[in-house]
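Dear colleague,

Thank you for sharing your sequence with our group. We've completed the structure prediction you requested, and as agreed, I am returning the results in plain text so they can be pasted directly into your records. Please verify that the sequence below matches your submission; if there's any discrepancy, let me know and we will rerun it promptly.
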Amino acid sequence: MPKVEPPKGAILQRDKETYAIVPRIPAGLLPRKDLKAITAVVEKYDIPIVKVTSGHRIALVGMTQDQIEPIYKDLDMDPGKAVELCLHYVQACPGTEVCQFGIQDSLGMGLKLEEAFAGIDMPAKFKVGVSGCPFCCAENFVRDLGLMGKKKGWTLSFGGNSGRKVRAGDIIAEDISDDEAVEMARKLVTYYAEHARKKERTSTFVTRHTIEKIITEAL
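Please find the predicted structure tokens below.
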């Protein structure tokens, strides 16, 4: 039988019959209207599983192929990425918005990075973590790109991974401003996109290329 392509923004499940979707939720912030829309489609389409993921997203699981398009229409939310070679998510802690320990505005920075990198083709899946203080609740050091807030600014890291071959990202810069952090992140991502092999995560890329060479050539 010919291979059937899954609907755009949907992931075929292990039963080979049903699908999952992860609507895009920038920096894990869910406006009231989107929360209401998700509740409405879960009830309307009798969606059996709703899962909060490790990347601060909400996965809707167990729909048939013909339900995907009308569900997205009812949601009025952009499809999130889960298997494509691109930015998958920006994980951000509450930061100075509400947390008593927050030092830097991690939610604001998370939204800036989401805007900067959403929709850009990458060599592999790409994950970002933004923590508003050194408690690192957004797991920034084991993300492809990480930012950690301190009193004098941001600490930027690159090349982290939380998979089978765990790797802490290399610290690229410390005590940098919001604008400096975004600009350096852009340069690192651009360099990675231009020089990495297909499906090569940043952790493998840094090991192969050396962080010294990346800093020299990218920044």
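Summary note from our side: The first strand starts at residue 11 and ends at 12.

Kind regards,
the structure core
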